[in-house]
Design brief:
Elements: H1 9-13, E1 17-22, H2 25-34, E2 42-46, E3 49-53, H3 55-59, H4 68-74, E4 79-82, E5 85-86, E6 105-106, H5 109-125, E7 129-133, E8 136-140, H6 142-152, E9 172-173, H7 190-217, E10 221-226, H8 229-236, E11 244-246, H9 249-257, H10 270-279, H11 284-287, H12 292-299, H13 301-310, E12 328-338, H14 341-366, E13 368-369, E14 372-379, E15 386-391, H15 401-413, E16 421-429, E17 432-433, H16 442-453, H17 457-480, H18 485-514, H19 517-524, H20 528-536, E18 563-566, E19 571-574, H21 578-597, E20 601-605, E21 611-615, H22 616-624
Helix pairs in contact: 5-7, 6-7, 12-13, 13-17, 14-15, 20-22
GO molecular function, one term: DNA-directed DNA polymerase activity
Domain UBZ3-type: 559-593
Protein name: DNA polymerase eta
Length: 625
């Protein structure tokens, strides 16, 4: 039995989460590679756009989506580094001086390699690491922290009195200056103090992890330390660069009050837009006006309860161990499009080389080997991207990149292609431990079991129960707060809002009806059919309806992206669409959970004030129909 099993139960139930995010990641990789001090303004460029800007350059007003010309006008001393590229016929990416879109292919390998080394360090400290993107992760350190606490206080039990925490040297400790939200010491009970001890121990551990990354790799990162993922993520940006912030429970309400609610995880995309439209709110604090019943009536049992909690900083989502992607992809968009098989062959060589290098790198690092080789291509005459696959060459059969390149060409030739071709991508999918090599990491099995259990009805009920428990304790915290005029104003507002509710919803309905389908299509680069599937299939049992967004390496900076594999639908998703994409699955999961109890409904009033209930999938189906 683990040591932490003997800490009081309220400490075992209080999750302790770190969110660590590298500072200006691609820039730091270039600083280290080129041995340039971090106070020199530097930006990473892809064709004529910037994809990463360091903090010295940000001071000069340069931002990520500036063009090279704009950036140099603002800061003539700016050091520009173009991302590595594969040139015609080259087997390895290089830092070419003047790469051309027509002849070169972008390679993000240097950043992926740096990322893999960083995650190795995370893994050394903690066995529950959830990769959120190429340069950020959540870590569940509850067990480690509880065990350290027991080492520090061997007699710790339900009756132990908590000494004061010395917060010095643990990073920034968030404090809200608005006294109406800050409980006095007399409102923080003994259990809360022990929970603060958990955060203090976690903060020390976090500083050690960050220090290791700096000492071993030369990168700085920032972090948030809190009792859940949402708060850890929200506070990790508060002291960037190279800072960490602790969010104590007693400070949470003050922190959340003025937080623009769309900054909250899972509320940055569609779900957030619908909530903003329906409730006419901008900050998390404004959501406090709505009772849990009201939110459940409007958004369903699960969504309503989740929303009620999340706007107060309550989040029961687990950190799921996942520190490597399950597939990898090399892709290229063509402008002008390719016109013949000879050109396809040429690019197949380049894509095959990139994929080969990454598969071999991954094998060395993680002893994994892919199951399938998949090509995705898009030809002008075809409305949607197509794909074709074959088994990936076995380890003993793969001696050079040519084996993959030949297979890519063969797959293309054997498919229903038509010229001109505007995009070609090749992926290695189904990466799994190669059983012929050494021992198998047992944590992978644990991760699979966790994934498998994630969506069950029992789990969803458990989440609601956890929520109810935390909501009750937050209400107690609310009561403990000094009576403020603000709170009274909220109660009055609540009543006014109830009265105006019908009008607000009517306006919202009209507004949403006015939003044309084409807007969504533009935003997601999808066809109307994709949008329809996105919502109509929301009740289906698999996530195959997730938008099939094929990556690009065009000159548009927005599409110059790290790709991440979505483990829910097995599709590669560009980083700038990741939040929206996760939102999609999140909405889907909420809807499924709701379907097991009650349909997710928006209660709206039509113009004749007659009540009507709209299933959210029909809602969007109607819009697209
Ligand atoms: P971010 O973590 O969003 O940003 P950052 O690390 O550059 O800066 P910060 O300190 O503010 O966190 O992205 C990580 C890397 O991903 C970034 O260095 C470059 C790359 N990236 C793109 O290529 N395109 C994009 O649109 C975004 C958002 C990031």
């Amino acid at each position: 039995m683990s040591k932490s099993a003997t800490v009081p139960s309220y400490l075992r139930q209080r999750r302790v989460v770190l969110h660590i995010d590298l500072d200006c990641f691609y820039c730091q990789v270039e600083h280290v590679r080129l041995q340039i001090p971090s106070d020199i303004p530097l930006a990473v460029q892809q064709w004529q756009g910037l994809i990463a800007v360091n903090y010295a350059a940000r001071k000069a007003g340069i931002q990520r989506h500036c063009t090279v010309r704009e950036a140099l006008a603002a800061c003539p001393d700016l050091k520009l580094v173009h991302v590595a590229t594969y040139a015609n016929g080259e087997k390895e990416p290089k830092y070419h001086l003047n790469p051309s879109y027509a002849t070169h292919k972008v390679s993000l390998d240097p950043y992926r390699r740096a990322s893999a080394l960083i995650f190795k360090i995370f893994q050394r400290f903690c066995n529950i690491v959830e990769r959120a993107s190429v340069d950020e992760a959540y870590m569940d350190v509850t067990e480690i922290v509880n065990s350290k606490l027991l080492g520090m206080f061997p007699n710790l039990d339900e009756n132990s009195e908590a000494p004061d925490v010395d917060w010095a040297n643990l990073g920034a400790i968030y404090e809200n200056s608005e006294t109406s939200f800050v409980p006095t010491d007399s409102h923080i009970d003994n259990n809360d103090k022990w929970c603060d001890w958990q955060l203090a121990v976690a903060a020390k551990l976090c500083a050690e992890i960050r220090d290791s990354i700096y000492r071993e790799l030369g990168y700085t990162c920032s972090a948030g330390i809190a009792h859940n993922k949402t708060l850890a993520k929200l506070c990790s940006v508060l002291n960037k660069p190279n800072g960490q912030t602790v969010m104590r429970s007693s400070q949470t309400l003050g922190f959340m009050h003025s937080m623009p609610f769309q900054k909250i995880r899972n509320l940055g995309g569609k779900l957030g837009n619908v909530i903003e439209d329906v409730l006419q709110v901008e900050t998390a604090g404004e959501l406090w006006k709505f009772s849990v019943d009201e939110l459940q009536t409007r958004f369903g049992r699960v969504t309503g309860a989740w929303l009620f909690g999340i706007c107060r900083g309550i989040d029961s989502e687990e950190v799921v161990h996942r520190n490597v992607a399950k597939s990898m992809m090399a892709a290229k968009s063509f402008r002008p499009p390719l016109k013949n098989l000879e050109q396809i062959q040429h690019w197949a060589t380049i894509l095959g080389t990139e994929l080969y290098t990454r598969v071999i790198d991954d094998f060395e690092l993680n002893q994994r080997w892919p199951k399938n080789l998949v090509i995705h291509y898009r030809c002008v005459a075809q409305t949607a991207p197509r794909s074709k696959s074959c088994p990936f060459p076995r380890r003993g059969e793969l001696f050079s990149p040519d084996t993959i390149s030949t297979k890519i060409s063969a797959l293309f030739k054997s498919s229903a292609y038509a010229f001109p071709c505007v995009r070609l991508a090749a992926s290695a999918t189904g990466l799994n431990k190669d059983n012929s090599v050494g021992t198998i990491d047992i944590s992978q099995f644990v991760a699979v079991r966790r994934d498998a259990g994630e969506d069950t009805a029992t789990n969803s009920d458990h989440k609601i129960n956890m929520h109810t428990h935390e909501i009750a304790s937050t209400e107690r915290q609310h009561k403990n707060l000094p009576e403020s005029s603000l709170m009274k104003k909220q109660a009055t507002l609540d009543k006014v809002l109830q009265q105006n509710c019908n009008q607000t919803l009517q306006e919202t309905e009209a507004k949403i009806e006015d939003t044309r389908l084409s807007e969504s299509c533009d935003k997601f680069n999808l066809s109307p059919g994709d949008i329809r599937r996105f919502f109509v299939d929301a009740t289906a049992s698999t996530d195959s309806s997730a938008p099939d967004i094929v990556p690009s390496d065009s000159s548009d900076t927005k599409s110059i992206n790290e790709m991440s594999l979505c483990d829910k639908c097995n599709k590669m998703i560009p980083q700038d669409q990741w939040i929206e994409h996760k939102d999609f699955h999140f909405a889907l999961q909420l809807q499924r959970e709701d379907d097991s109890g009650r349909k997710l409904v928006l209660t709206t009033n039509n113009r004749s004030s007659k009540k009507r209930k709209t299933d959210i999938s029909n809602y969007f189906k109607n819009r697209t129909g």
